[in-house]
């Protein structure tokens, strides 16, 4: 049985689909706190007003529509800063 071009395109599209995890205000707050960031610091990492972060966190169990990429960006920046600081400490100790 031959595979149609449309079916092949649909299969290719399905394989490229990435599911975005559901993020709630409660989860966002917990992640921010685990990173040791204030709302103001978190907001500066993602170029948003601190009030936006506060609003998101107050939504508790309601899913946030903001992309999870915001969280990834903060984690990447935070860990990059930590790696840089560690290198400096190690360099000073040598």
Characterize the structure shown.
The chain is mainly α and 94 residues long. It is built from 5 helices and no strands. 9% of the residues are buried.
Q: What kind of oligomer do you see? A: single chain
CATH domain class name:
Mainly Alpha
The percentage of residues in β strands lies in: under 5%
What is the count of structural domains?
A: 1
Count of helix runs: 5
CATH architecture: Orthogonal Bundle
Structural class: mainly alpha
How is the biggest beta sheet arranged? none
Low-confidence stretches: none
Rg, rounded, reads: 20 Å
What's the N-to-C terminus distance?
68 Å
Could you name the CATH topology? 434 Repressor (Amino-terminal Domain)
Mean pLDDT: 74
Order of helices and strands: HHHHH
CATH superfamily (homologous) name: lambda repressor-like DNA-binding domains
Shape: flat
Question: What is the secondary structure topology, with strand pairs?
Answer:
Layout: H1 5-16, H2 25-34, H3 39-45, H4 50-58, H5 69-93
């Amino acid at each position: 049985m031959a595979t149609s071009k449309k079916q092949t395109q649909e299969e290719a599209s399905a394989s490229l689909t990435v599911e975005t995890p559901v993020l709630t205000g409660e989860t966002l707050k917990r992640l921010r706190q685990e990173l040791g960031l204030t709302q103001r610091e978190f907001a500066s990492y993602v170029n948003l007003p601190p009030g936006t972060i506060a609003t998101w966190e107050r939504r508790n169990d309601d899913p946030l529509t903001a992309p999870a990429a915001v969280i990834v960006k903060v984690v990447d920046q935070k860990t990059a800063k930590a790696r840089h600081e560690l290198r400096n400490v190690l360099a000073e100790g040598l």
